[in-house]
Amino acid sequence: MIGYVTLGTNDLEATAKFYDALLDVIGAKRMMEEDNFVAWATTQEAPSIAATKPFDGQPATVGNGVMVALAVDSPDMVDKLHARAIELGGVDEGAPGPRGEGGFYAGYFRDPDGNKLNAFCMVQ
Hints:
- The protein is of the alpha/beta class.
- The chain contains 2 helices and 8 strands, in the order βαββββαβββ.
- The chain has a single domain (4-54, 66-122), classed as Roll (2,3-Dihydroxybiphenyl 1,2-Dioxygenase, domain 1).
- The protein has helices spanning 12-24, 75-87, and strands spanning 4-8, 29-34, 37-41, 48-52, 67-71, 91-98, 104-110, 116-122.
- A 4-stranded mixed sheet has the order 1-4-3-2, covered by helices on one side. The protein has a 4-stranded mixed sheet with strand order 5-8-7-6.
- A hairpin with a 6-residue loop joins strand 3 (37-41) and strand 4.
- It is globular and about 45 Å long.
- The two termini are 24 Å apart.
């Protein structure tokens, strides 16, 4: 259902470097790039994540309650993605681990612009 998610940034160059290194963990690469916009995906058909300077020219701000969830295939990959985010200057918002009952495993973090993300998988 989701085609792509766009996050605002005030420093596209720094944000692009963060996501280049972070998303490399799951095999995502830049799939589209303009002067004020970069998008990453694992394939052209897969949902993507993008960073952009706001169209209206105003500063980018963080949405309160907004979060982007990155689906991965194992708890090990959740751990790796979360660790890489922190290593790259992201902020921990909840260490990787099981959440509730039902096999949901996730780690939460914020990118350098303050956007909240998580990496998650379902385990049996």
